[in-house]
Give the backbone structure.
Amino acid sequence: MSDLSLRGIFVNNRAEQLPSDIWNEFVIPMHFKKIDLGYDRKSVLIEGGRGCGKTMFIRYYCHNTIFSSHRMKIPDKEISNVGIYWKPHVKYCAFIEKPTWIPEEFKERAFQHFAALAILNDFCNSLESIEKADLENGPISIMNEKIPPVASIYFGNKIETYGEIKKYVSLENAKLDLWSKNPQLERPIFIQFDQILEILSESLAKTNPRLEKLFFRVFIDEYENLQERQQRLLNDHIKHPGKRFCLNFATRRNSRFCTETSGFESIVEIHDYRRVDLESEFLEQNSSFSLLAAEVLLLKLNQAGFKLDNAPDLSVLRDRSRLEERQKKEYQSKIKQIARNIFPKLTASEIAKIVFDDSALSNRLTKLIEKGLKKHHMENHLHVDSFLVKSTPEASIVSACMLNRDRIDPRQVLVELANLKEKKPSKFSPESEWIKENLYGALFYLYSGLPKRPCLLYSGFDRFCQIARSNLRFFQELCHESFTIFESDHSDTLNPGLVLSIPCNVQAEAAKITSEKVLINIANFGSELLHLIRRLGKLFQLSQKRAGQSEPEVNHFSISGRLPPAEQEKIDYILEKARTWSVLYEDKDTKNKRAENTEAVDYIPNPIFTPYFGISYRKKRKLIFTAQEFLEILEGNEENFQKTQGSYEQKWDISTKLMQQEMF
């Protein structure tokens, strides 16, 4: 039995689950030059949605990676940009604010002390990383260097060398923890990191000419989770950085954070910090994300021992100087094609052919045609088999939906089918609007009645990228579930020479499993978000069950009008929270140009939820809710929501019996 394992490749899809040294894990994105922090000294705000890779990006710049043991002949210039990482313990930071026995001024000092100890701890780690690094000009001795006398005062005159600081920090952390929970104990002597870090760095820079440009970039992860007062205190250091350090912070996209300082000033973008949006390039150019996803996929498979035929040298993925090689069309085509071979897809036309070979799907298609003929009272005049043409499956499937529309004459549909068969001009030709606009929706309709049948429209590398929507964590989870299912059936045949190709039905099943997991996890960010997505999903799902598919692929919405302030505030709050946690995305309605239009903003549920509800991941058509209707979806009880569903059933001519049979 082979030692190779597919299921273990993407089992750890969070930066926190990986080693601090990610030199061999980080794939430099193609737009790196736009977001590179470089060697400048301005503070930086790093933002991006959950799972987009903020922590990985930060850790790439931190000392563990920059001075990685996997990296040879590291240039001395890296010492001019040493990254220190701090992810505050959110619960402890909140706890410091609560005790009534701690005077207000001590709460601030206690937090500053807590921050100082955390930053000094990784400062010490960074010095060890530099000392152990394979520097191109030889090693640098640091830990035995004497600290300046003025710095020793801050440490109670108990520390003499840089190497001893870490032990002091560890002891002081224990004292702070005990004091914060036991008020009768002696209060620790509080310190602030800025003056100490500046003094230590300045002194160290004078010990060796190669350390002359020593500079520390302190990264604070999940900044928005800190208490507002704590953010103000840290903003002081963003507003007034040191000569040898600057403070940088990472937040979720669309999240709010305090910009005020503890004084009268505020931190201002451009003047005090610059913004790095990790997602913007991916959202604007889907091809950029699909390339990164393909590169990550190939890198992980290669590291796991799987052979990849015709794959380029993957060391290029972590080399900043070789970005131009990856910009070449030949390279990008090769990388993506290998990924598509691993996760092949069936086109909508190919899936249409499968419908005729699948008894359950073909039976559902037959019933749809029968329903359409009865709708027009033509069941005794036209035969179902006339519309079931196996040689033109796309046209047959779309025609079944056309028959269920009010203004379509079944006889005209039959004429168009005959024209297609005879190779005459036809509205059912492959490039016609009837096919282009309706085939996906018609296929989703057929699968919607068979919830246990994996929908093949969710399979394929490019579709995985669409469903993940610039979220690398979601893409990795889709891969993980696919590999897990595949390996359970092929564990005895895994070997380095295996030409890996995951069957489409396996991918489709994995997409649904992943979608359900992510949906359930929404509750961690608020039950109201899970409640909202479930209800929106049910309405979109209901729309997908319209036999006529006159508006196929409904999967987003807009809101018309506004409510009085108190009620509108509830809507605005939940929309903002949903955007912050990437549950909803906001987009402009480019189809409606009227300036007075009140539905100018589209809200798109994260495409990762679409496989669970059996709806389209392509942004096509939307529902327009009034503000009152949307508030009722948010707050209405189950009985009221069932009435809302009932109104749409009636509007879309969907029977309750059918809905009960087919609803997930």
Remarks:
- The two ends are 39 Å apart (CA to CA).
